[in-house]
Predict the 3D structure of the following.
Amino acid sequence: MRAKLGCQKGGKLLARFVGNTIVLEPIDAAVSRAQALVRQYVPKASGIVDELIAERHEIAKSE
């Protein structure tokens, strides 16, 4: 079963319910799935990190 999932012995799996079914997937696959989901809502060239840094600098100035 691990071979079909691409998971080595000792590798970590995530278990979740989908309806009445238990789904096992390697952690890497779950992370990739989550990243793809988030990517739908964040514009490609959003500069979100730069925005956060600028916001933190503004907060620091006012303290």
Q: What stands out?
A: The radius of gyration is 19 Å. The chain has a mean pLDDT of 86. Residues 48-62 form the longest helix (15 residues).
